[in-house]
Description:
Elements: E1 21-28, E2 31-39, H1 41-47, H2 52-62
Amino acid sequence: MLNQWPLFQVPATRKRVFMRDCDWWRCENRNSLENWCMLDIPHVLLQLGYDLFAEVRQTASDQR
């Protein structure tokens, strides 16, 4: 995926990033009825130079 647009307030970098995902399907009688897709957004942000978990840790420590 090429980061061409801002993502969660992180400006576009034009860097190629890898997006990890996991799909779960509920099937019945050979038909797909539902799909749940989990995306690893923190990993994408980290590739763009934004460490989400570092900010969460900092925010938590500031509130103590």
